């Protein structure tokens, strides 16, 4: 990673792989943490063991071990002379040095001390959980990693007060606390160099050795590599077209444990728990010898092949011209994102709410309420993501227009509308979230499907000519393309959760019928939807004109209408009435 580019460079470079269809942005070389810290990474927690000048701590109980008094932040030593920061002459350092050379330092020189509390800007945090009982209050020390997160939030260059106490065998603080005033240590000087107080090897002392042990076992924040846990097995069959229902197994799509021992008999679905997975994983010593057997992961999919020989690689085609890309964004991709969002919302409202199952249903199906809550959250999050994609597509369009890339005589117009075929066939585009429909949603979002290929082509087009397009467009296209795999997985999970009720779909589905365009019961809902579209349209137009106050006002208006619309749609769905989202469409005026 030491030779990785320090700045984002859209130009193709033979040294670095091109983005593969659907890969997340985090898989690109320019996004690696190694660009900031080349070579072996360090344990970020090791910086904070010396967060307070003159004191050295250690973080205990990183793995939960119970309230036995050993968790928290343990004081290792208090030494003024060995800390070079005290060579500086500043009022707060002089005062702190006096404290540590006086009674406070003498007290800390004997016994076992723990960090008790942190106070800054008048706010104090005690590093304990408090359990209040009738006759006593039990203080359970936080785990060391929890304390570390608190310490990470301390502001530099601001007055800081810490208190240290000793503990009894149960972890309860005893005796009088030692209180010190100072400031958080700054970890980098003006040249970006760590202070001399950190000794050679100290920042990596808590890491495993050799590095492959870290690669296998460490889930801590300091490990910088894009280390997959669960991946898709290779896609070995034709990819289904949108709207078809195909079984994942028939297409060779299986979620695998990436750290498993290799062999065809082990290429089975990843177990649900760490304990179940461990017997078939490389063990800590085996990984030292066999780490090179781990598969490359492209687009979330394992492969033993080079990127340019993958079946998916030939499916991506860059746009021949920017004008063609603009046409596709306006007439297909932006309307398609809107159409998918509306279709997913209709499916969401067709699901029963968690408060609808009866007591008898909950008795017979104990997980029903939580299953409904989870699936509704999955579908809502994907619908919101599709709305975000429509906004990003519009942002790409207005940026291309402002930079002179639109065809002569044309300029950006907001695109907030469904596909024409959705307006013609609203009854078939809007369907309840049955298991069959959820499987169709899975197929729509499946990696390497039509939508994924189109965005991959846009990514290629924006990358192929460095310097031609404004900054940010390439990143937006990558973000949109990267989200498809998450949508696929969420719909797949939703279908799996509800499959246990396949014999009784009425447990999760409302008996909802799509209303006609002239049905008076949905008049207010359609009026609210038209208001959302009009406000969104106005907001995009204002933002394209760099009128941020106007854009913010339109956005607030759209959000207010969205809240009312959601409440109205839920009320109608409980009555068995489905909103005809694509009826009497107000258009883009």
UniProtKB/TrEMBL annotation:
Q: Which Pfam families match?
A: Ferritin-like
Entries under InterPro entries matching the protein? Ferritin-like, VioB/RebD_dom
Q: Where is the segment annotated Disordered? A: 1-23
Q: Where is the Iminophenyl-pyruvate dimer synthase domain?
A: 337-450
Bias (Basic and acidic residues): 1-13
Q: What is this protein called?
A: Iminophenyl-pyruvate dimer synthase domain-containing protein
Q: What is the lineage of its organism?
A: Bacteria, Pseudomonadati, Pseudomonadota, Alphaproteobacteria, Hyphomicrobiales
């Amino acid at each position: 990673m030491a030779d990785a580019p320090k700045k984002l460079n859209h130009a193709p470079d033979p040294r670095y792989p091109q983005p593969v269809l659907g890969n997340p942005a985090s898989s690109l070389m320019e996004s690696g943490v190694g660009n900031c810290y080349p070579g072996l990474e360090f344990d970020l927690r090791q910086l904070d063991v010396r967060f307070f000048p003159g004191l050295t701590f250690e973080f205990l109980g990183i793995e939960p071990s119970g309230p036995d008094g050993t968790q928290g932040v343990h004081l290792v030593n208090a030494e003024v002379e060995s800390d070079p920061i005290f060579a500086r002459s500043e009022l707060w350092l002089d005062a702190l040095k006096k404290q540590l050379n006086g009674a406070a330092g003498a007290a800390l020189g004997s016994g076992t001390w723990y960090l008790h509390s942190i106070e800054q800007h008048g706010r104090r945090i005690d590093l304990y959980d408090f359990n209040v009982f009738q006759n006593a209050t039990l203080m359970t020390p936080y785990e060391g990693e929890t304390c570390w997160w608190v310490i990470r939030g301390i502001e530099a260059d601001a007055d800081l007060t810490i208190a240290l106490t000793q503990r009894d065998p149960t972890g309860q603080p005893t005796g009088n606390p030692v209180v010190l005033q100072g400031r958080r240590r700054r970890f980098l000087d003006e040249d970006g160099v760590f202070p001399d107080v950190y000794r050679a090897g100290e920042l990596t002392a808590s890491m495993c050795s050799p590095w492959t042990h870290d690669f296998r076992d460490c889930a801590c924040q300091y490990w910088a590599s894009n280390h997959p846990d669960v991946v898709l097995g290779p896609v070995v069959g034709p990819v289904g077209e949108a709207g078809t229902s195909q079984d994942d197994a028939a297409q060779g799509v299986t979620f695998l444990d990436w750290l498993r021992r290799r062999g065809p008999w082990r290429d089975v679905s990843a177990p649900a728990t760490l304990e179940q997975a461990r017997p078939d994983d490389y063990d800590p010593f085996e990984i030292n010898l066999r780490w090179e057997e781990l598969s490359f992961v492209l687009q979330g999919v394992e492969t033993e092949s080079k990127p340019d020989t993958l079946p998916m690689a030939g499916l991506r085609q860059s746009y021949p011209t920017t004008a063609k890309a603009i046409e596709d964004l306006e007439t297909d991709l932006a309307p398609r994102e809107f159409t998918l969002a509306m279709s997913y919302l209709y499916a969401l409202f067709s699901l029963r709410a968690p408060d609808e199952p009866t007591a008898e249903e909950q008795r017979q199906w104990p997980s029903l309420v939580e299953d409904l809550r989870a699936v509704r959250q999955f579908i809502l999050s994907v619908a919101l993501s599709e709305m975000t994609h429509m906004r990003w597509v519009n942002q790409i369009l207005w940026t291309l227009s402002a930079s002179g890339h639109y065809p002569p005589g044309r300029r950006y117009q907001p695109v907030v509308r469904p596909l024409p075929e959705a307006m013609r066939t609203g009854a078939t585009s809007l369907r309840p979230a049955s298991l069959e429909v959820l499987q169709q949603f899975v197929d729509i979002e499946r990696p390497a499907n039509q939508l994924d290929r189109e965005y991959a082509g846009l990514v290629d087009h924006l990358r192929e000519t460095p310097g031609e397009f404004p900054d940010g467009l390439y990143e937006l296209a990558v973000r949109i393309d990267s989200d498809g795999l998450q949508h696929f997985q969420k719909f797949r999970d939703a279908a799996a959760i509800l499959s246990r009720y396949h014999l009784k779909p009425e447990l999760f589905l409302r008996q909802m019928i799509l209303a006609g365009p002239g049905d008076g019961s949905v008049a207010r809902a359609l009026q609210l939807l038209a208001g959302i579209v009009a406000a969104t349209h106005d907001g995009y137009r204002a933002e394209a004109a760099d009128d941020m106050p106007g854009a913010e006002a339109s956005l607030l208006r759209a959000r207010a209408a969205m809240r009312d619309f959601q409440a109205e749609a839920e009320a109608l769905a409980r009555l068995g009435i489905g909103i005809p989202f694509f009826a009497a469409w107000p258009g883009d005026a």
